[in-house]
From TrEMBL, chain A:
One of its GO terms (cellular component) is plasma membrane. This is Energy-coupling factor transporter transmembrane protein EcfT. Pfam families: CbiQ. The chain crosses the membrane at residues 31-53, 65-82, 88-112. The lineage of its organism: Bacteria, Pseudomonadati, Pseudomonadota, Alphaproteobacteria, Rhodobacterales. Coiled coil: none annotated. It comes from Paracoccus siganidrum. Belongs to the CbiQ family. It is a multi-pass membrane protein. InterPro entries: ABC/ECF_trnsptr_transmembrane, ECF_transporter_component. Keywords: Cell membrane, Membrane, Transmembrane, Transmembrane helix. It is found in: Membrane.
UniProtKB/TrEMBL annotation, chain B:
GO terms for cellular component: plasma membrane. This is Biotin transporter. Keywords: Cell membrane, Membrane, Transmembrane, Transmembrane helix, Transport. Belongs to the BioY family. The chain crosses the membrane at residues 51-69, 76-101, 113-137, 144-170.
Length: 202, 191
């Protein structure tokens, strides 16, 4: 499975994940607290500069992942044009785009392994309270493995359907898919048990 | 215990896999994805605690940067985007769906699951989703709600599918539905 981490190696890839996450939290809170248009424009320009620094491939990938906020930009601008408060609308748009871009930037420059390590450190206090957070280390790889298996099973079922019918399969495949997947999950549960259970707390 | 982990992981993967199903467009031009069907199913099949765990696990993987949300989205940007309320509402919605099926005892498991999906996957999820939208877009809750109300018919459809699936599961694989098996406990509503 492909993570959203950028294959373009940037300097930020080597920064500690905790620092990047902390900076993201501070920047997001700060932008929500200030109403100054100058600060918002400066923040957006700064984020764009960060995107542009590692080169064109990185910039294009970053802009592509920003496309999902475009419908909201359009809705907001139309809304505020109608109510006549375009300035306020522009400010909200700026903040929204900057926040999403900044958060995506952290994702693009931080590997999956580093983030899993960070999760382990952040959940350490919960573990001391008795929550079984170490089970996450068994569950996360299971989900990552199950997802493509489920997709492949669904494709098999769809092919079997198409071989027998001219209508589209649609939601009817979900029941056989669920049944097969539940059997799989039972087998995985038994296999885990046979191998001594999930990873224990270290 | 091992089986619980496997089932939670399975339904987290189910939410992800259903997000990869190409979206269909309803008659009046509103695209719907199957992702929230996975959330409804997790709550309705696994019950409140394990259902919420499955949705939470899915969300954790999204936060770690896997592109599992419908449309191949993922990463930390999801949690500050206008739809953050919906994403963060997934575990709550699964929990509410599970709570409904565990405590409102109906003769038909499918009906309980369908109504539970309406309660958790629509009522609870839309309140949280509209709240998130209202915060990010700086609008009132009512205004935010009008922006998302067009998606409700699609979600009613998904709640109906959840009901039918759970009805079928109760018939062919009743051991999966832990909440459906035993007699109603003390304090349960019996209808």
């Amino acid at each position: 499975m492909i993570s959203l981490t950028s294959p373009v190696e940037t300097r930020a890839h080597r920064w500690p994940a905790g620092v990047k996450l902390g900076a993201l939290c501070l920047a997001s809170t700060g932008l929500f607290l200030t109403g100054s248009a100058a600060v918002h424009v400066a923040a957006l320009l700064l984020v764009l500069a960060l995107y542009a620094a590692p080169g064109r491939v990185f910039l294009q990938a970053g802009l592509r992942s920003l496309r999902v906020v475009l419908p909201f930009v359009a809705i907001l601008l139309v809304w505020h044009a109608v109510t006549g408060e375009l300035r306020a609308g522009a400010l909200i748009v700026l903040r929204m785009v900057t926040l999403v871009a900044l958060a995506n930037l952290v994702t693009m420059t931080t590997g999956l392994g580093e983030l899993v390590d960070l999760i382990r450190r952040l959940t350490a206090p919960l573990r001391r309270l008795g929550l079984p957070t170490h089970l996450l280390e068994t569950a996360i790889p299971l989900v990552i493995r199950f997802t493509p298996v489920l997709v492949a099973r669904a494709e098999n079922l769809a092919e079997a359907w198409r071989a027998r019918s001219r209508r589209r399969p649609g939601w009817r495949l979900i029941l056989p898919l669920t049944l097969q997947a539940l059997d799989d999950a039972d087998h995985v549960g038994e296999a885990l048990r046979a191998r001594g259970g999930p990873l224990g707390p270290q | 215990m091992e089986r619980n982990i496997a089932h939670v992981a399975l339904f987290a993967a189910m939410i992800a896999a259903l997000g990869l199903v190409p979206q269909i467009t309803l008659g009046f031009g509103v695209p719907i994805t199957a992702q929230t069907l996975g959330v409804m199913l997790a709550g309705a099949v696994l019950g409140a605690r394990r259902g919420a765990a499955a949705a939470g696990l899915f969300l954790l993987l999204v936060a770690l940067g896997l592109p599992l949300l419908a449309g191949g989205r993922g990463g930390l940007g999801v949690f500050v985007s206008p739809t953050a309320g919906f994403a963060l509402g997934f575990p709550v919605a699964a929990f509410a769906t599970g709570l409904f099926v565990e405590h409102v005892r109906l003769r038909s498991a499918g009906l309980a699951a369908g109504l539970g999906a309406v309660f958790g996957g629509i009522v609870v999820l839309y309140i949280l989703g509209a709240a998130g939208l209202a915060i990010v877009l700086d609008k009132s809750l009512a205004e935010a709600f009008t922006l998302v109300a067009v998606f409700i018919p699609g979600d009613l459809l998904k709640a109906g599918i959840t009901g039918m699936l759970v009805q079928a599961l109760a018939r062919v694989r009743p051991q999966t539905l832990a909440w459906h098996r035993g007699a109603a406990g003390a304090g349960d509503l019996r209808l």
